[in-house]
Design goal:
The complex is a heterotrimer of chains A (about 300), B (about 675) and C (about 190).
Chain A lengths: L1 E4 L2 H5 L3 H13 L3 E4 L8 H7 L1 H17 L4 E4 L2 H16 L1 H11 L8 E4 H16 L2 E2 L3 E4 L9 H4 L9 H8 L3 E2 L18 H17 L4 E4 L2 H8 L2 H8 L7 E3 H8 L22 E2 L9 H6 L1
Parallel strand pairs in A: 1-2, 1-3, 3-4, 6-7, 6-8, 8-9
Antiparallel strand pairs in A: 5-10
Chain B lengths: L3 E6 L11 H8 L5 E7 L5 H14 L3 E6 L2 H14 L7 E5 L1 H5 L6 H19 L7 E4 L3 E5 L3 H12 L3 E6 L13 E2 L4 E2 H14 L3 E5 L1 E9 L2 E8 L14 H5 L5 E2 L8 E2 L2 E2 L11 E2 L5 H5 L4 H5 L12 E7 L1 E4 L3 E3 L16 E3 H8 L20 E8 L15 H15 L4 E6 L9 H10 L4 E4 L2 E7 L2 E8 L5 E7 L1 E6 L1 E3 L3 H8 L26 E3 L9 H19 L3 E4 L4 E3 L15 H5 L5 E7 L5 E8 L9 H5 L5 E3 L4 H12 L2
Chain C lengths: L12 H9 L11 H5 L10 H10 L2 H8 L3 H4 L5 H5 L6 H14 L8 H17 L4 H12 L8 H7 L13 H10 L1 H5 L1
Helix pairs in contact in C: 3-4, 8-9, 8-11
């Protein structure tokens, strides 16, 4: 089966392992992810902070190209890109004049017929049902699922999961056999795009996230956004400085967690690219539950 | 011969500034049938009404047209004036020269022409008006009070003491409502049950009041003065005539782990239970969904220990039919639970409780004997945070209104807490302090000045749990919206007041209007706060909107006054402007063909089937008959009647056509 | 009597926000839930609810303060404020609008220079290649920020982990991208 795919700049660059793990599990499940031909950067935070029309045009070009390529669904693993695409779709569909204007700027027509899916929706729709057949290991660890801001807010536009204490990622991890803990910073911002320009803020915000999860006994943090991953992983020195103690808790993508449960090679999932070493091991082999065909016969034997 | 009097009102300058009133009066004098035509500055005033009265007597008028403001303003005024002068009031009509003419046009000849046309139309109509007599309807002098909270209790006692019979129906096993759950009441800090229970006992003992508890309203038919009500008395599984209230069954019942509704889930109760010790009536009830015997067929311990043989496992629900003249809705309200707040944890934290739960903790007869303790581990909280205004004034959560009582009870809670935990600190996050009643503001000042309550102006954005404590993150907007984080032992959320469970269903049974929040609608927000749009049905208390005890009691007494007023006559008079199906001599009896389309469209269920029989008792035909007690004169039946057999008194077809003819043929 | 309800056009910043963004600041009753939930509230000079209060007064000196504030640039657009706001005052698009106004009127707060430089460096990179070229971004940003020391230690590990591309990825239709920039952000800066 084929699905439209938008990697975005992070997946091609600094968050390469996210892309690798998405591709790895897609391949395992027999899904071909077809990138939008000649896609451009969605503009991320910078565009909407500086100019509204630019921030709508950059994503709109991609959406129009996707439609032109005959794609009907678009899997967008980066939460920021997902947020920008959904915001653009929402604004254009609710404001005819704006829609016409943006179509004019990008010199293409976006009709609005795409279904935009974040990585968790992709997993829910196309991966999770096939898991039981292919799982080799149980992810028997205590994990903290970190959603960040842009997967769940604003609710009116995204209409995906509840904004306080969301459960969709937890459900996936539970299916993998993980003990997904209840904790207080599931949707608190990690510091977003300030990694370089306001690093102290990232140290504080991401520091609070790591601290709370660790305090409640999490062995790993699961994320679905490359910006969050970078802040929680690459910026670990700033986090440790803020918390005044060293934390070794690994931060992995949900797709990497699935990959580990499927028994995919760790390097294929890009785990070696993390700054905080991912020492998770000793996963329990997964025993598929057998269905008893004829109970009576079993008893006799 | 018609002798019509026309009176053109200036209405101060409201009409005369735009319409040449004296000219209109002069032209009207020339209309056929008009024998008297004048104009005057204020027709509704005393001298103005005298003008009408004198003219009727002097000129033997057979009809009067007062051309002035809208009939919605003064039709009753002028009809009364005519009646006093000896002219049937329904032979007085009003032409609207104000709202329909002077207030919507500029001063010119065309406007004068319109005014003249309007007068001409009404003159032609009034010539065809019939003298009508008001309709008399009998009144049953028994009132139905639905709901046994403080409002219902007050209404029932007032009506009973006025000498009328009252039937009270309460859904719970005992009367008392939410007031019986409170610890103390503001602003006096009276013990709530101490002031309520004497009233509850009075209700039980008053010879004029018949009390049905654990009962609900099944159906209501009829109209003001004559409501036929079916009450479903749910099976308590106890023979009330035998039970002496000893309570032994409740202590011996082995099935003790059921959540206690009265204690709002903070304690357990047996399957056979009395809701609280001061319950009225003091008769237990078996919850069939929990009782071991009803579920599995085993146990029956209560039956074994009952010395009065009062347990009756085969008892069925009973339908009781009563006839009442008026209905008082006093069904009260409910509050949102803490699970309504995603940002406060969806109700999963045991130490985040709502206001009513705090009342139970503070109450001496509550689950902790009046000690403030954390539901999670029973510890006494040293730092408590009250979140006022939670869910109210919150369009994002669908509740845009203010719940009125929370500011006051939050101050009360802070005071009670401080009285019980001397070394504790209470913080209150508030938006405004709404303390508008008598001695209310002084009460909140007392909380701040004498009982050290720390008020912080701002809302709470998030509460989460950590290491057994609750981290409350709010803002202090008086300090530049600074974030305030408090590590609390317990949080009390003053949740929004909402319509009670089943309010919508009851409203539909009673045919009473309600709003989008399922609160019952009053007939007029300013001038008719205790009446509904349905004649004979009144409302009092929090079922109309969140309110406190003095307001509920005042409304209940208001309702009792209205009902006593209704019962002060043995008959009710109604306006005769209703639809009538024609009747002719035999063998036709009526032009009605008996198709009964009218019956199927009547919104008031006012149309019946009348059987016409011959001298031998054989059925000749069935005709439509309109109940004069129910008909509201809406005219729907007139419109659908294919044989044109129905007409509305005061708005007959010939009267209406005469107005149109007058307009067209001139 | 003629109808003389002549609504004055509201030229205040609050009025412009209502017209251009569709957000009615009159709805804000200063409950502070947004400020309490905002992750960078403590870094801001005016937390979100206070910022709105300043705009509510309509006074020019307050509007000036807002456009020159750190708040609008420190805002992460994490959307927490709108998800908590009981009156559904949509602060994030309001912040976007205030940011572009601040740029247009050249009133950016000096403390936000690095943040703005980063955004500009980011957008420049996209304008040139169509996709983010992280090396180029870092070099450009450091040149603008004159901040050569920070993160220097990171670069080698990023390379080693394969996270930094040496060469930029150029999309084919770069002309399309340049046109988009010309018609939007660059149009205003002329």
């Amino acid at each position: 089966m084929k699905l439209g795919f938008y990697p975005g700049c992070s997946l091609e660059g600094a968050s390469r392992e996210y892309n690798e793990s998405v591709m790895a599990i897609a391949e395992e499940m027999g899904i071909e992810l077809v990138s939008i031909p000649d896609w451009n950067c969605c503009g991320a935070t910078a565009a909407h902070n500086m100019d509204k029309e630019l921030s709508l045009s950059l994503p709109a070009r991609n959406l129009a190209l996707a439609e032109e390529a005959g794609l009907t669904e678009l899997v967008v693993p980066c939460a920021a890109c997902y947020s920008r695409f959904c915001a653009t779709q929402h604004e254009l569909m609710h404001d005819e004049n704006l829609h016409k204007k943006i179509n004019g700027i990008i010199e293409k027509e976006y009709k609005g017929n795409l279904r935009i899916l974040n990585v968790i929706q992709f997993i829910e729709e196309f991966i999770i049902d096939k898991l039981e057949d292919k799982m080799k290991f149980e992810f028997n660890k205590k994990v903290a699922c970190y959603y960040g801001c842009l997967l769940v807010r604003p609710n009116k536009v995204l209409n995906f999961d509840r904004t306080e204490d969301p459960q969709t990622m937890d459900a996936v991890m539970k299916k993998l056999g993980a003990d997904s803990i209840d904790w207080a910073f599931k949707t608190e911002c990690c510091g977003a795009g300030f990694s370089v320009s306001f690093t102290e803020a990232v140290g504080r915000l991401s520091g609070q996230i790591i601290e709370d999860a660790e305090h409640r006994g999490a062995e790993a943090m699961i994320v679905a956004c490359p910006m969050c991953h970078s802040n929680l992983d690459m910026r670990r020195p700033e986090i440790n400085k803020y918390n005044k103690k060293k934390s070794d808790m690994p931060v992995i993508y949900i797709t990497q967690a699935i990959g580990l449960a499927l028994g995919i090679d760790r390097n294929k999932l890009g785990l070696q690219r993390h700054f905080v070493p991912v020492k998770l091991k000793d996963f329990k082999p997964y025993a598929k539950k057998t269905v008893v065909e004829n109970p009576q016969k079993m008893e006799v034997e | 011969m018609a002798r019509i009097g026309v009176f053109i009102c200036h209405c101060g300058e409201n009409i005369s500034a735009t319409v040449d009133c004296s000219k209109v009066a002069q032209v009207a004098a020339t209309f056929p049938g008009v024998v008297h035509s004048v104009d005057y500055k204020y027709m509704c005033s005393d001298p103005g009404q005298t003008l009408v009265g004198n003219a009727i007597k002097e000129h033997n008028l057979t009809g009067v047209v007062v051309s002035a403001c809208s009939p919605r303003m003064h039709e009753p005024t002028f009809r009364r004036a005519c009646a006093e002068a000896g002219l049937n009031p329904y032979q007085c009509e009003m032409a609207n020269l104000r709202e329909h003419c002077s207030w919507v046009h500029e001063r010119n000849e065309k406007t004068d022409d319109k005014a003249i046309d309007l007068v001409r139309m009404l003159v032609e109509k009034v010539k065809r008006n019939n003298a009508l007599q008001p309709i008399k309807v009998p009144v049953t002098k028994t009132a139905l009070v639905i709901g046994g909270g403080v409002a219902g209790i007050q209404a029932a006692l007032d009506i009973a003491n006025a000498g009328h019979k009252v039937i009270m129906v309460e859904r719970e096993p005992s009367i008392g409502g939410h007031m019986s759950q409170l610890s103390e009441t503001f602003p006096t800090l009276d013990c709530s049950q101490c002031i309520l229970t004497p009233r509850m006992v009075e209700v039980a003992q008053n010879p004029n009041i018949k009390l049905y508890t654990y009962a609900e309203i099944e159906s209501v038919e009829g109209f003001v003065g004559n409501f036929a009500v079916k009450i479903r008395k749910k099976a308590k599984s106890i023979d009330e005539s035998k039970c002496n209230g000893c309570g032994l069954c409740t202590t011996k019942c082995p099935n003790k782990k059921n959540p206690n509704e009265f204690e709002l889930g903070m304690a357990k109760r047996p399957a056979i239970y009395v809701p609280f010790p001061q319950a009225v009536p003091n008769i237990p009830v078996i919850d069939k969904t929990q009782c071991t015997y009803y579920k599995t067929g085993k146990c029956k311990i209560c039956e074994k220990v009952c010395q009065a043989n009062a347990i009756q496992f085969d008892q069925q629900d009973e339908i009781i039919e009563v006839l009442v003249g008026a209905i008082a809705i006093c069904t009260g309200f409910d509050i949102k639970k803490t699970d309504f707040f995603p940002e406060y944890g969806y109700g999963k934290h045991k130490d985040i409780i709502d206001g009513l739960q705090f009342e139970r903790l503070a109450s001496a007869s509550g689950p902790t004997n009046g000690e403030i303790r954390r539901p999670s581990d029973g510890q006494v909280p040293k730092k408590i945070v009250f979140v006022a205004c939670a869910g109210s004034r919150d369009p994002a959560k669908g509740i845009e209104y203010c719940s009125k009582i929370c500011c006051m009870y939050t101050a009360k809670h802070a005071i009670l807490y401080k009285h019980k935990v001397h070394d504790g600190t209470a913080y209150i996050f508030y938006m405004d302090i709404r303390a508008a009643g008598k001695n209310y503001d002084e009460f909140t000042r007392r909380a701040i000045e004498e009982d050290d309550a720390k008020y912080i102006r701002g809302r709470v954005s998030k509460i989460y749990e950590r290491d057994g404590k609750l981290i409350v993150v709010g803002a202090d907007t008086l300090m530049g919206a600074q974030t305030v984080e408090i590590e609390a032992d317990m949080v009390v959320v003053a949740t929004a007041g909402v319509a009670n469970q089943g309010a919508e269903k009851l409203a539909q049974i009673l045919h009473v209007s309600y709003d989008q929040h399922k609160f019952f609608s009053e007939a007029h927000p300013k001038l008719k706060p205790v009446e509904t749009n349905t004649a004979g049905i009144y409302l009092a208390g929090a079922c109309q909107s969140p309110k406190d005890i003095p307001e509920s009691v005042a409304a209940a007494s208001g309702v009792a006054g209205k009902i006593s007023c209704l019962f002060s006559n043995s008959e009710l008079t109604r306006e005769p402007l209703i639809a009538v199906v024609d009747r002719l001599a035999p063998p036709l009896y009526s032009s009605c063909t008996g198709c009964f389309m009218c019956q199927s469209v009547c919104p008031y269920n006012a149309i019946e089937r009348e059987e016409i029989k011959d001298r031998n008792g054989n059925l000749v035909k069935q005709l439509a008959f309109i109940n004069p007690g129910l008909c509201q004169g809406c005219g729907t039946c007139v419109a659908v009647c294919k044989s044109k057999s129905i007409d509305i008194e005061g708005y007959t077809n010939s009267q209406m056509y005469s107005e149109v003819d007058a307009l067209l043929n001139f | 009597m003629s109808d003389s309800h002549n609504h004055l056009i509201d030229n205040s910043l609050s009025g412009k926000i209502k017209q251009n963004v569709g957000v009615s600041l009159a709805r804000c009753y200063q409950c502070g839930k947004c400020s309490a939930g905002c992750p960078v509230s403590s870094d801001m000079d005016f937390p979100p609810s206070l910022l709105i209060r300043k705009l509510q007064t309509g006074l020019p000196e307050h509007e000036e303060e807002v456009l020159r504030s750190k708040s609008i640039w420190y805002c992460l657009t994490c959307e927490m404020c709108i998800s908590r706001c009981p009156m559904e005052v949509d602060i994030p698009p309001m912040m976007d609008y205030l940011r572009s106004e601040s740029l247009r009127l050249k009133k950016e707060n000096p403390a936000a220079k690095n943040i703005i430089r980063f955004h500009k460096a980011f957008l420049d990179s996209i304008e040139q290649t169509g996709r983010l070229y992280e090396m180029g971004l870092i070099v450009d940003y450091k040149a603008r920020a004159l901040n050569l020391i920070q993160d220097v230690a990171l670069a080698p590990s990023m390379f080693a982990k394969g996270k930094l591309k040496i060469m930029p990825e150029l999309i084919k239709n770069r002309k399309n991208i340049k046109q988009i920039f010309k018609k939007t952000i660059n149009k205003k800066q002329k």
